[in-house]
Amino acid sequence: MKKKIVIVGGVAGGATAAARLRRLNEEDEIVLLEKGEYISFANCGLPYYIGEVITNREALLVQTVEGMSKKFNLDIRNLSEVVEINRERKTVSIKKVETGEIYEESYDTLILSPGARPIVPPLNGLSDAENVFTLRNVPDTDKIKAWVDEKKPKEAVIIGGGFIGLEMAENLHHRGVNVSVIELGNQVMAPIDYEMAAIVHWELDNEGVELYLNDGVKAFKDGGRTIVLQSGKELTSDLTILSIGVRPENELAEKAGLTLGERGGIVVNQTLQTDDPNIYAIGDAIEVRDYVQGTPAMIPLAWPANRQGRLAADHINGRNAVYKGSLGTSVAKVFGLTVAATGNNEKLLKRSGVDYEAVHIHPNSNAAYYPGGSQLSMKLLFQPDTGEIFGAQAVGYKGVEKRIDVIATAIKGKLNVWDLADLELAYAPPYSSAKDPVNMAGYVGGNVVEGDLSLVHHHEIDEIVKKGGVLIDVREPEEREFGFITGSINIPLGELRDRLSELPEQQHIYVNCQVGLRGYLATKILTNNGFKASNLSGGYKTYLLGK
Amino acid sequence: MKKKIVIVGGVAGGATAAARLRRLNEEDEIVLLEKGEYISFANCGLPYYIGEVITNREALLVQTVEGMSKKFNLDIRNLSEVVEINRERKTVSIKKVETGEIYEESYDTLILSPGARPIVPPLNGLSDAENVFTLRNVPDTDKIKAWVDEKKPKEAVIIGGGFIGLEMAENLHHRGVNVSVIELGNQVMAPIDYEMAAIVHWELDNEGVELYLNDGVKAFKDGGRTIVLQSGKELTSDLTILSIGVRPENELAEKAGLTLGERGGIVVNQTLQTDDPNIYAIGDAIEVRDYVQGTPAMIPLAWPANRQGRLAADHINGRNAVYKGSLGTSVAKVFGLTVAATGNNEKLLKRSGVDYEAVHIHPNSNAAYYPGGSQLSMKLLFQPDTGEIFGAQAVGYKGVEKRIDVIATAIKGKLNVWDLADLELAYAPPYSSAKDPVNMAGYVGGNVVEGDLSLVHHHEIDEIVKKGGVLIDVREPEEREFGFITGSINIPLGELRDRLSELPEQQHIYVNCQVGLRGYLATKILTNNGFKASNLSGGYKTYLLGK
């Protein structure tokens, strides 16, 4: 039987659903409604067009209304805003954006893919500030780019250090603008933990981006030219990007009486249906399950939106289609750095009261003797008894997102820390080491779970030393010239076996090295000689990052 | 109880085993015997030192005898060749290479890690050829590099187009030498299939490397300066590298009465023990299980050697340690190209009589609108009823080994083609697309298994068209100007719905496009309209590669 399917929202999830619906069924009537002018545009590319990294505006328009209509035999209506869902009549009320005219369209099945919109707080002076922008779509992009092209701003202020904020920071910097970033939290890039974000802070500093952490905007003055921070500081801005986060476009669903989650996401079941089985919802507007913990989560990213679009179309056509939740796998380029993460971070695990352990490693991206490699920092989070993987983070200049992709795959395959050690990954000197960083993380994790390795963490060691704990720094004396942990005693690894008698037998011994590897060898020597010993996870490097 | 463990072979697996043994036990006596001068050197880096990509020779020496002895408290003896295993006495006979003196050393447990040596066929004139080299270790490297430095060869001939052959081709080319590669088979790089290797053939051609396929060496003349091929061709060579493969160093094991496999590998059980439970064997010299099929295989690569070294040490110390077999995951840089593979290739599956299906895709390494990306070619092999993944290959300029690592992980996680589609991988425009190439391969594979998509292959289509089969090329007319499959009829995808009446209703319709995506959309239109249709896997691109 021929069905009529109406889709609200023509970007990412909505466009994907439309294409998939047509591939599955040549007869169905498929109506795609988009309130904006453009459908299926490259959201994630927008900052790069402003930065002139992408130079061709057309390239942002992945599908045009005309092209996609023809290719997939769709009824696509842009500039068409759905203002009401009439569930009893199974119709939607559509407002033609240009004329204001409202008409009704019937549906057998409705898919809501309205997305999320940038949060705009009610700040003093904001309404008079012409130079403050948010970035969501092509018209926003055009406005910001025109402002940069025409006004040639000298100073830009980014409010919010998330993905869009940092991508805009990089792209405005690329345009020759001095950039400041204001972040309310103590770190940028919420998906990663503080000591990992510290590497990003360094990178921003190196690139000359001013970073104001633990500070927010109190008010705008002088028509937006002056930004007053909560700390009292005042910044001059010729261009301000407001990127403090997004909020699900849930009004339509709410008005229709569909259930919303605590954070406003439209609640759906595993087959992406709302309370009303004839209404599906997908993309940034919905509440998903955290893949690892099974708890509700809001994860406004492109992959879930696309995947959900496909699955909704499958389910509408009677196929098995279960959305299993989101890992929130993400990656961002921040100048030369790549920052990637998957699954749960430590902040979330701590907040959730879940029992976890973390390991930090700083291996080379590829064989140290092959040129062009660089150190990368990884953090692996796992269940301390079973070795179940909760999540991972990586930051560095090369081979970063590869390791996160592997761990995201491992999580979906229900692999544990030992399995990570057993992954047979591609090795040649330009690409990796015979023990890949993922293998290394797995080995360290396995050692912890098996009790072969006791860890102490960067945020614990100062307190321990202060209270009289013994900390042995097993690096060479030359390395300590660049800094060491106050109170640590230097016994280089090569001398440790001969100097065991210097150590107090009754006391727990803490060990640190530069990145954690020699420290591990040292703790093995110590424990095999009857001492109780713990290694500082990630060594002095992680300690320094955590400061 | 204190044990005495003797290890034969101080590179890769042997060195790893020694280090792990010490970490697990501080008391054991660990003797590491190496017949060469160097232990634990960077095998995989040797070609790059000859090519002066790696400029520091010291960098190749990962561990020195002195350094490693001290760090791990080991008894390391280099220039010490084990010439006999005396199983009854539990001793080995060791020849001091420098003096010829032989002495016995007892063991409780023996680990054999002798490696594999380059195959040198008994060719006419070889013994008189001073300019013919094999490459296995540091002295070989020194000899080749000295020859290049001093003799300044103009013409080099590489015999054998495997990993070492092609890495040497690139590195000698980098030194300004004209390079020819002779390969007995119809393709280079045995781990991948012919149509994938074709991309490598193009790359070699682009870089000015002469490639002689389906040809071998018959004899050397003029002291090696002339190489006579089986085809009768004669090549001039100032420097010849013999890299046709390796053979396990199995003589010691054989003489000791340990079982060898059909291809000469030392047979071990899952805990890496030979027939004699006191003798373990690891690395290139052993026969492993193919991880996918469970059949015997020889996989002389660094990852398995290292992994086995660790596991043997674990098992010796009473720990659970099972080597689950080798996927043979591999990667090589061939000039700008990256060539990577994991699991079974089509040649092996065909030879084994296993039921399989293959899909080819040619997606972009990252978002097409973001600069610096490039097309990559992937092949996925799987069980056609269950979707079990057998293997994958990828060739391209960017993001290649990442996708293979993900699929290698998926295989270890027992994920199937649908799961590949469901992998939540890291996406931002510089790194991937919202549907990653791995997702794409999974979607196509899933479509095939579910019967949503019928494929025809590059090696089948000519015959089909010749016999009167209908082949529709759904590309635009402009694209056909660069070539098309003889006998194909052009109906651009956008016109297909309107021109269905032109198609014969009773005949199976074959479809091709450029890379397979539009062809898939076309087959969906056709089958949804009652036609029987198949898509050419990988489109015209794979067809051309398969020529």
Explain this structure.
The structure is a homodimer of 547-residue chains. Chain A has 17 helices and 31 strands. Chain A has 547 residues and is an alpha/beta fold. In chain A, the strands form eight sheets. A five-stranded parallel β-sheet of chain A has the order 3-2-1-7-19. In chain A, a hairpin with a 6-residue loop joins strand 20 (286-289) and strand 21 (296-297). The mean pLDDT of chain A is 97. The interface between A and B is large, with 81 and 81 residues.
SSE arrangement:
The structure is a homodimer of 547-residue chains.
Chain A: E1 4-8, H1 13-24, E2 29-33, H2 46-50, H3 65-72, E3 75-77, E4 80-86, E5 91-96, E6 102-106, E7 109-112, E8 116-118, E9 132-133, H4 138-151, E10 155-159, H5 163-174, E11 178-182, H6 194-206, E12 210-212, E13 217-221, E14 226-229, E15 234-236, E16 239-242, E17 246-248, H7 251-255, E18 266-267, E19 279-281, E20 286-289, E21 296-297, H8 302-316, E22 330-334, E23 337-343, H9 346-352, E24 357-361, E25 376-382, E26 389-396, H10 400-412, H11 417-421, H12 437-449, E27 455-456, H13 461-466, E28 470-473, H14 477-480, E29 489-490, H15 493-496, E30 509-512, H16 517-528, E31 533-536, H17 539-545
Parallel strand pairs in A: 1-2, 1-7, 2-3, 7-19, 9-16, 10-11, 10-16, 11-12, 18-20, 27-31, 28-29, 28-30, 30-31
Antiparallel strand pairs in A: 4-5, 5-6, 8-17, 13-14, 14-15, 20-21, 22-23, 23-26, 24-25, 25-26
Helix pairs in contact in A: 1-8, 6-17
Family (chains A, B): Belongs to the class-III pyridine nucleotide-disulfide oxidoreductase family.
InterPro entries (chains A, B): FAD-bd_OxRdtase, FAD/NAD-bd_sf, FAD/NAD-binding_dom, FAD/NAD-linked_Rdtase_dimer_sf, Pyr_nucl-diS_OxRdtase_dimer, Rhodanese-like_dom, Rhodanese-like_dom_sf
Organism (chains A, B): Rossellomorea oryzaecorticis
